[in-house]
Design a protein that fits this description.
Elements: H1 5-19, E1 24-30, E2 35-40, E3 45-49, H2 61-65, E4 68-69, E5 75-78, E6 83-86, H3 87-91, H4 98-110, H5 115-126
Antiparallel strand pairs: 1-2, 2-3, 4-5, 5-6
Length: 137
Amino acid sequence: MAITEEQFAQAEKQGEEARQAGYAIKARYDRRAHRVVVALNTGVHVTFPTHLAQGLDNATPDALSEIEISPSGLGLHWPQLDADLSVPGLLQGHFGSRSWMAAQMGGKGGQSRSAAKQAAARANGLKGGRPRKMARP
């Protein structure tokens, strides 16, 4: 499938608009804090713990230390991990793909330890637990 001149021009325009919020000029892994530090052209530094990001959570410090910045400054790539993050996404609090983030949020919700949830679980246990599913005729 060939790209038309119009599609190319539109893609360039979108890239320039994305760069307006800031783009990466430096990126490094801080071993002491276990965080990635990204310096933007605006003077802002974005810092995040590696356990929050897709593909970085169980990586070795050596693999995390090797970070490549895309030519546009809008992407970060860890070659040893085959992991990528979007700088505009990071600025919006997105640390991975939509499906990955949804799975992370769902897992956290199931781990909730509120007093109300504990009381409800105890009360349900006293009643014999969760009712068994009945087979439909």
